[in-house]
Amino acid sequence: MKGYLGIDVGSVSTNLAIINQEGEVISHQYLLTHGQPIQAVQKGLREIRAALPEDIEIRGVGTTGSARQLTGLLVGADMIKNEITAHAMAAIYFYPDVRTVIEIGGQDSKIIIIRDGLVIDFGMNTVCAAGTGSFLDQQALRLSIPIEAFGEYALRSESPVRIAGRCTVFAESDMVHKQQMGCSVADIIAGLCEALVRNYLNNVAKGKDIQKPILFQGGVAANLGIKQALERELGKGIHVPKYYHVMGAIGSALLAREKMDGARDTRFKGFGIVDINCRTRNFICKDCENNCEVVEFFMEDKPVSYWGDRCGKWETQAHRL
After folding, report:
1. Does one domain contain both 203 and 301?
2. What's the pTM value of the predicted model, to 2 decimals?
3. Residue 81 is part of which domain span?
4. Is beta strand 79-80 parallel, antiparallel or unpaired with respect to 57-64?
5. Closest C-alpha among 14, 64, 19 to residue 252
6. What is the pLDDT of residues 197-229, one digit of tens each?
7. CA 239 to CA 170: how far, in whole Å?
8. CATH of the domain at 265
9. What is the pLDDT of residue 239?
10. For residue 154, which phi and psi values (nearest 5 degrees)?
11. Does residue 38 sit in the same domain as residue 116?
12. Whole-angstrom Cα distance, residue 214 to residue 67?
């Protein structure tokens, strides 16, 4: 059986998916990055390998996410693409008539506008955590409520309170004030969900032509309170796909399948990579006034790649390794 592996490594979660030649999802994994992308990828590969049929042969690998370059070096990727391309690829594959993709992750969020199967516009928020999953996680921790229950609390609300959502500091201050006023937890959580949605629509989706069908992807799509708030603000129904939490990984796998169609050999280093000692080291190159911060990537204590330099000196050296 031919399989294609997609890996999406973000600041909060690391997602893996394997599809077959027909594009069907064979297996997928969702785990937390914990600030250690290399270890997270190795753990994910170890877990997904254990769930695979013995006769599968990986014929292509794609990576995406904020750590896509590092992950590509680690596993031997055949295709390295940004998150917009990967999420759009998966959305169009499963829902050919999709026109808008809303994606809210742990540390960033994005909107993708699609017409006739092509991306014509997009927007991203990568600067502030307000309006992302970590924004909700922080408040769930403060309220001592499991994040998985946030949506249920929001749906119980009869009168959501107004929460300032442009900044996590202001939001927390506002929530404390509302608690002191005697507002219910359900109303506060519903207000928080609405604040996140306002932040998203005002900063990420501002000026975008949002049309149905609309897909809601990313880990936050599991939150029914956010979905309800989005539908209320937009006045339109939203669909959460089956694989909402790993759509970036699936998109990467689809891109790898497309690239490797008819090709003989993949660059994939094999699942044995989970047992190899890999690490990175940062240093400041002082050979010129740029003072670039260069990242050096080691496999078994041997440097195999460099990136981050403006002049290309270290990247050129990497090609000679």
Report:
1. no
2. 0.87
3. 2-90+248-275
4. parallel
5. 64
6. 888 888 888 889 999 999 999 988 989 999 999
7. 31
8. 3.30.420.40
9. 97
10. -60, -40
11. no
12. 27
pLDDT tens readout for residues 225-245: 999 999 999 999 999 999 999
* Claim to verify: residue 126 and residue 212 sit in the same structural domain: yes
pLDDT band at 256 (very low <50, low <70, confident <90, very high): very high
* C-alpha angle 137-141-146 in degrees, rounded to nearest 5: 80
> Residue written as tokens 């330099």?
309
Note whether 218 and 103 are within 8 A (CB).
yes
Question: Are residues 39 and 52 located together in one domain of the fold?
Answer: yes
Per the structure, the count of domains in the chain is 3
3-state secondary structure of 27: strand
- Burial class of residue 96 (count of CB atoms within 10 Å of its CB; 0-12, 13-18, 19+): exposed
Residue whose token pair is 């390794």: 321
Average pLDDT over residues 262-288: 88
Per-residue pLDDT tens over the stretch 17-37: 999 999 999 999 999 888 888
Beta-strand runs (E) in 53-165? 57-64, 79-80, 100-104, 109-115, 118-125
